[in-house]
Amino acid sequence: MSGPSPEAIALDASLWDEPTTGIGLYTRWLAKGLEELGVEVTRVGARHSGQLPRGKISRSLFTLGPLPRLLTGLPQPLYHAVSNFNLPLTRVPGKALVLTVHDLIPDLLPETVSRSFRWQFRLWLSRSLRVADRVICVSTRTREDLLARFEVEPERVVSVHLGVDHVDQIARPDSAGLAYLAALGLPKSFVLYAGALDARKNIELVLQGCERLRAAGRPVTLVLAGQRWFGAGPLEKRIATLRAEGFDIRPLGYQSTEVFYELMRRASVFVFPSLYEGFGLPPLEAMRLGIPTIVSTGGSLPEVCGGGAIVVRPDDPVGLANEITQLLDSPERSAHWSAKGKAHAAGFSWKRTAEQTLSVYRSALSGR
Predict the structure, then answer these.
(1) What Cα–Cα distance (Å) separates residue 325 from each residue in 160, 170, 255, 318?
(2) In DSSP terms, which residues pair with 191 in a beta bridge?
(3) 46 with 17: CB under 8 angstroms?
(4) Does the pTM exceed 0.90?
(5) 78: which strand partners?
(6) Half-sphere exposure of 159 toward its Cβ, with a 13 Å CA cutoff?
(7) pLDDT for residue 1 is more than 50
(8) Rounded Cα distance, 136 and 118, in Å
């Protein structure tokens, strides 16, 4: 795409100061990549950091209230909202508007979110698509889902994959983090799931796989690293029941960045059998770190993980158990998938994400 190249842009930083999520990570590393390309990034709407923090006001109220006025007064020609649907409700004079859509989970899997959020998502996203000059989707699958379910011209919607090379720069845990990991007493071999305890993530399949492995005389240690999420209650009860029956399941909750990735580095197998993903960053991170990875056929996972991960159906606990067994029992198979995963993940860099995003900015500015 050709067009004027912005020397500066305003970026939605509403998740910058919050506990790290996929969108928050995307915001930080996209900003870094853009700055390395020479683009000055003004961070707008973080809780307390950046050039224009929102303070104590909620993210939604900030976007609906002060944001349009603030953008009108900024010299930057473009504003990029990164959180699925959070553009102002009306055009901002003199500004090109870009929106990143990560997934359509509230629309595709409505039972996995609250009813109020589902309505907010659909109505606000519909409006954001009308005012956006360009829309970035983080995968081809998300783009296809968006075009199938919402009214938006295909030529305004572009797929741009995320990077994964940020894991190379994550420091090892400090002494306190290492002491915490040692206190866990994890065995040398364990299976890891990393992500939110979200019904959509299909962790139940992993639990069923563990039941089959134990019944076959091959019990495993399962580590769950991630914060609880909407609908986590039944899953937590199920985990508690299995632990009471003697299953070695370690629900660790939300972890610091350094501890989170150290757990990933130490895992023997990484499992991520999600029912749907708009991108699916955790398995790609595990692949980048050389951890043999098993994913499902859900959403964009086959697109993103390609031939670098083992794929099972999201309703096949027997297949999952068999794949875990083979990886744990065969060093040769484990090494094979480690190498394949690293080779595939090498194609996803934040520099490339920033370059392609900058191309979208140029198109948005030239098309106004």
Answers:
(1) 35, 30, 27, 11
(2) 222, 269
(3) yes
(4) yes
(5) 96
(6) 16
(7) no
(8) 21
